[in-house]
Each structure stands twice: as C-alpha cells, then as structure tokens.
Specification:
The chain is an alpha/beta fold. It has one domain (3-184): Flavodoxin domain (Rossmann fold, 3-Layer(aba) Sandwich). The protein has helices at residues 16-29, 53-57, 66-74, 92-107, 128-136, 138-141, 167-184; strands spanning 3-8, 34-39, 78-86, 89-90, 116-117, 120-123, 145-146, 154-156. Strands 1, 2, 3, 4, 5, 6, 7 and 8 form an eight-stranded mixed sheet that branches. α1 crosses α7. The longest helix has 18 residues, at 167-184. The chain starts with a strand and ends with a helix. Bound molecules: flavin mononucleotide. Flavin mononucleotide (FMN) binds at residues 10, 12, 15-17, 84-88, 122-127, 157-158.
C-alpha cells in the first residue's frame, strides 16, 4: 500500500504542528493511503556537514537518528514536512533535516523523485508564508510534486491544543491531504 510520511519539526510534547498533521493524515487515510507521523521532538538534529559520505554509504552518517527517518521516507510515495514558525521562519531543525534528506536522496538512489506532498506551517500570528516558501524550496530541486489546496497550508495556533480552533485552515489541510492521496492514487 502507498504510504505518506508526515514529519513534524516541533519540539513540544503537546504540539499544534502534530495536531495539524493528524488531521492531514486522517484525510489521506480516508482515500486509502497509509500514513505515519514522525517527529523531530527530542532529537538533536545536526546540519549537513557536506562530507558526501551518504553517496558512499547510502544514508547520512551523522549519528542523530535522522537516518532512520530517511529510510522511512525512502520507502514512501508521499512526504509532508510541517514546521512551527520561529521568529518568522521555520524552526531550524526542520530545515537542517530537509537539507540532509535532500542531500542523501541526490547522492544515492534519488528516492525523492516524483514523491508527492507539500509543506505545512503553524504559527501564533505571523510568518507562515515565508516559512512555507522556505520549505517549498526543497520540493522542486528534488524533482518532487507539490500538491495544492484551496489556500496555503498555514494554520494559526499559539497556545498548546489550539490548532483545531482555526477551522478555515483545518479545512485547507483536509483538502490538501485528500489531494495528496488522490495524486498518489492517480485519481484526478
Ligand atoms: C522561539 C519561538 C519563536 C516563535 N516565533 C513566532 C513567530 O515569529 N510568529 C508566530 O506567529 N509565532 C511564533 N512562535 C509561536 C509558535 O509558532 C506557535 O506557538 C506554534 O503553535 C508552535 O507550534 P508547536 O506547538 O507545534 O510547537 C514562536 C515560538 C517560539 C518558541
């Protein structure tokens, strides 16, 4: 069965980003596509050190657990990274992760080729559009397909557990998830 990996860049235990990803995953699964939410929470994600060892070894040699997430993405047909906004841009860990995921794909079997998805940004008040732009850069350079919705994939939520209150954004995320699954199922 086709599968989508949804990656949260939030460090919080009760994370708005994860709550949004749960909604997205539910919409994907309703179309018959499997999902798995993985999180960078608790991890100490390093930046790419440009060693190029991934091309020899097949995965990232940095010993922080991202290689296991990369293996999950390698086996999937869809990928949805989601970030909380920190000072107007994506939390640093998710960008470090994306850069290493892209480097490994390009240095090895190009597992990101034709993978379907798109980014999601969550913030209390502002910065989602720039955060989406940052994360969007990852997709075309890795020969991936970004799927649309009825708005940008941005949610307003500050305090823990408030993401679902942004009803309009949640509808956008649901449609996005449905569309990701439809593209994977080629039912469009
Ligand atoms: C260091 C830091 C910087 C933040 N910067 C912004 C910001 O620029 N704009 C904003 O609207 N919210 C900002 N926030 C709030 C978070 O984006 C918001 O609480 C979000 O819901 C967190 O998602 P999470 O629960 O998944 O971690 C910031 C929070 C932290 C901890």
């Amino acid at each position: 069965m086709a599968k989508v990996i949804l990656l949260s860049g939030s460090p919080r235990k009760k994370s708005n980003t994860v709550d949004v990803l749960k909604v997205c995953a539910e919409a994907i699964e309703a179309e018959g596509v499997e999902t798995e939410i993985v999180t960078l929470r608790g991890m100490k994600i390093q930046s790419c050190i440009a060693c190029g060892k991934c091309a020899e070894k097949g995965n990232c040699i940095l010993n922080d657990g991202l290689d296991e997430i990369i293996e999950k993405i390698r086996d999937a047909q869809g990928f949805i990274p989601a970030a909380p906004v920190y000072f107007g841009t994506a939390r640093a860990d998710i960008m470090a992760a994306l850069q290493r995921i892209g480097k490994v794909s390009r240095g090895t079997d190009r597992f990101l080729d034709y993978m379907i998805g798109g980014p999601i940004a969550v913030a209390r008040r502002g910065g989602q559009t720039l955060t989406l732009q940052e994360m969007t850069m990852f997709f075309p350079i890795n020969n991936m397909v970004i799927v649309g919705s009825n708005y940008w994939n941005m949610v307003f939520a500050g305090a823990e557990g408030t993401a679902l209150d942004d009803v309009e954004s949640i509808e956008t995320i649901k449609l996005f998830g449905k569309n990701v699954a439809k593209f994977i199922n080629k039912d469009y």
